[in-house]
Design brief:
Elements lengths: L2 H21 L3 E6 L8 E9 L5 E8 L8 E8 L2 E2 L3 E4 L12 E7 L6 E7 L7 E7 L10 E2 L13 E2 L5 E10 L4 E10 L7 E2 L11 E8 L5 E7 L3 E7 L10 E6 L6 E4 L5 E6 L16 E6 L6 E7 L7 E8 L5 E7 L3 E7 L6
Antiparallel strand pairs: 1-25, 2-3, 3-4, 4-5, 4-6, 7-8, 8-9, 9-10, 11-12, 12-13, 13-14, 15-16, 16-17, 17-18, 19-20, 20-21, 21-22, 23-24, 24-25
Amino acid sequence: MTKFAAWMAPMVMAATPLAAAEMRSPILSSEFIDAHAPYPQAHASTLVQLPDGTLAAAWFGGSGESRPDVRIWFARREGRGWTAPVPVADGVSPHGDTRYPTWNPVLFQPPGGPLHLYYKVGPNPRQWWGMVIRSSDGGRTWTTPEPLPRGVLGPIKNKPVIAADGSWLAPSSREEGTAEANIWSLRIERSTDRGGHWTVSAPIASPMHIEAIQPSILFHKDGTLELVARTRQGALAQSWSRDNGVTWSPIAAIDLPNPNAGTDAVTLSDGRQLIVYNHGAHAPGTPGDGPRWPLNIGLSEDGVRWRNVLTLESKPMPDGYAYPAVIQTRDGLVHVSYTWNRQHIRHMVIDPRLLR
């Protein structure tokens, strides 16, 4: 070995593990939660980690969205896989004489309390109402369904968060009017008594006429909260709060595209902001709407400047890859679930240390 080679060898050896790490895929695993689905269509999943570390998921499934047979399904990840999906809620009226579809379940595990499952019941998103069931045994059994107070819809698609002052913030929104003239607005529903009572905010101001729904809430190191949401205008929306979610700044756009499709976001333990979204635009023939592929992960340090860092799915599909949910579990890994072509719910595990 020459003197130069001998001098370089330690540097090459030291660089090798880093190079190997950079070559590793951040995606650690990918699987269907409902591989043997007992229904033809599934949509709108939600994820939660239970106090014992178990992962749980819920979604709605049936013959097709908005049909009366659509129910809320639930599964736990135990051992090497997911348990068989079981229905845990439906839209049958208390007297059994009417049945409506169910929509958009959201799981929430508050510290020291029962697991909450919020969902909607009703003929369509303009006329639905909020419901909740609870479980004290990790989703094995559930309480009788309870309607939320009049005017309270609960978290519309994405998980509630707990603010620094202990209040629960449910990211919510409204779709009002008619099918032909449907007006969107963002709301925050806030509880200071662990869900006993709720205060519904006024619509968040939108002087630029950005219509947004289905927000997620992020935390910044200075105590500021950020809301990120789906819009009709081709880009994702943002709004900010400096008083633990009581008031919010006017809605503005961020620098990520949105084909009028649901998203979800989470603040990572290292302070970075992570969003799962469809990195696509409106289709020329359908202004205000576009295909729900590809499915991507975006990162930001400040919630203002975002970058697309990973593609989860890219193959064109008729119904695409939609309505993601994302959480970070206590081991530091990121879990994403999403609708796969309206047929299944897929679950991916991602190592955020490998995202740049």
